[in-house]
Amino acid sequence: MNWEDIARELAYTTDSKIVLLVCDGLGGLPVGGRTELEAARKPNLDEVARLGACGVTDPVFMGITPGSGPAHLALFGYDPLRYQLGRGILEALGSGVEVGRNDVVARGNFATLKGGLVVDRRAGRIPTTENERLCAMINAGLPKQEGAEIALTPGKEHRFVARFRAEGLSDVLSDADPQKDGKPRVQAAALKPKAGRTAVIINRFLDELTALLKDEPKANTALLRGFSKFPSIPHLAELYKLRPAAIANYPMYKGLAKLLGMDVLDVGAETPDLFDALEREYKNHDFFYVHFKRTDAAGEDGNFERKVAAIEEIDRFIPRLLALKPDVLVITSDHSTPALLRGHSWHPNPFVLVSPNAQPDGVKTLTEIECAGGTLGRFRSIYAMPLMLAHALKLKKFGA
Amino acid sequence: MNWEDIARELAYTTDSKIVLLVCDGLGGLPVGGRTELEAARKPNLDEVARLGACGVTDPVFMGITPGSGPAHLALFGYDPLRYQLGRGILEALGSGVEVGRNDVVARGNFATLKGGLVVDRRAGRIPTTENERLCAMINAGLPKQEGAEIALTPGKEHRFVARFRAEGLSDVLSDADPQKDGKPRVQAAALKPKAGRTAVIINRFLDELTALLKDEPKANTALLRGFSKFPSIPHLAELYKLRPAAIANYPMYKGLAKLLGMDVLDVGAETPDLFDALEREYKNHDFFYVHFKRTDAAGEDGNFERKVAAIEEIDRFIPRLLALKPDVLVITSDHSTPALLRGHSWHPNPFVLVSPNAQPDGVKTLTEIECAGGTLGRFRSIYAMPLMLAHALKLKKFGA
Q1: Across the interface, which of B85, B87, B369 has its CB nearest the CB of A361?
Q2: Residues B36, A242: Cα–Cα separation, whole Å
């Protein structure tokens, strides 16, 4: 029996409310002797640490740096070693592409073909505006293939997302990508017979696209990889009997929340919009996932000062969370993003849980080192969900 | 390989002695700023914490509130996610019913039948004395069915345990219970062909019982659920090469110990009886499970002061434990029972292990927060058994 089986058996609906604030990439490493959390003035986050039970979490296991997909799945109680989301679906969600149950999506690159060889898999990193023009041209010129609707969504520079929409498509396909410069174009191959028709559609589309782009100086072909369909993953309502809402202003996190069956609320682009939405919808749901992106974005840019500022920004909204008096409030992150490393890292996430049913501890500030000494100890992120449900008194007893 | 496989390979018999004192439901939550353990005067338990290595344990995993069955199984090294004991067998053990290898047992309710419908699944919660009269009447009137011996043991109010004894019975049966008031009686159904004869026996018995009770004002039928046989579970002697003794004065815990092949010692109903038995039998066994119930009983009643008093009571017996100088002494609990929650909870258990082979730590009092900071950290209860055996030098090296 695993957690999912147990959750289906033990979880039940109550009036209690859970708020999970994910400060993306919150944990860090010292620069000049202090981590971002240690350098920030954040009286409200520290007050939460004083009020709650603290610990640190490993998204996958010790030493593993997760992408946003696995890190978030773990926080919602899905073992990231069991559920692996295809790159195509994550890229599509991150680009705000609407993905239906029948669609196959893939990550695309514009590339340069010369003398029958792919000489630059990134088409000299064409400007994003060029990319947008090409995608519009292709969408207008090649919208259908054997009855399948095809749509490209431009990303940054040479990157795009391709969506193939028809009944009966399959994603059991190899990449249409030579992987290295200086090799011929490669067709997508059906890895199982059921994907044969999909491979034909995709390869004809790529040939016609290449014909259409033949006069472009750099972007005169395209590569596709990471074919994936909408994953079959149980919803939070089904597993936990929750009415969950997602409050996020980046498409990637909205898309992930949609995958898990959350109601994705309409939210503006700024931080106050998150809390306006939470207050507005507070009576209509019992689980709120609130996503704050700026801590991660600053960490990815290697900008220590901007990450400190992002922590200080979110700190000012904490009183609005506490004023709602949720039965369980958790503040944590999906993964660490130390500015020092300019990217995601394997370091554990500070975690604090405030509830009338939580055992207190002596932690007084929300930092990596203080949380590591809290009563919750060090644990895998997949236990965040059982802990939240338990403290909200939404789980029955296991066995007699 | 799991722990059981490893134990079979590595465990061996020595003269060293292990004493495991389970203070049932020991951990709690603050009321007026202090937990039960923080409020109690318990100089001897604190001395044990000073002498030993401390930690906290999760019986199943974080957030899961266990019943007594899974919580105890875990303490003895059996993964509670693998071994799940039926409600019937636990109810039978808890009622002191002697269950043999061929018996099927079930939880029973007296119920009220009116116009062909079960209108009250609890027969208006008839007095226990009424229940006792009815069970005696049925045992005298309906002792056999197709050669199967049948015996009812009364519990509190409307509850009883039914035991069916014959060769070849099966417990793969659905409940004979409509689950809701206002529905007709439901027969037990064989979920596999091998249970067909057992279903016939049980359904005929329920029909005859209903005929026998037809003039009773409230308790004129009965429902049965949780059919279960004696589970097949390896014994402690087999896994760990121990000669284990159980010292408990409640039938539920004696029954569990019997399931695991422990010698269940004769013990009176009072706390000194536990320690008298331990001293008397100390030379005859090498593993002693001592069960103290009053901490849990007070917690279940929501009586903070009485739980504090129970902690102070058990504290006075600790010098008798230490005087025996066991090679390993562990004091912990199966699960937490905060008076604040009036029931079992998911909070981890304080755990202290005293042994000449234990690493010391700085913990000075036996409380939830202090133990959480001990050198043993936070771990699943199934590691209690490997830890005890290791410190008693009863485990060989794994691998070369």
Answers
A1: B369
A2: 33
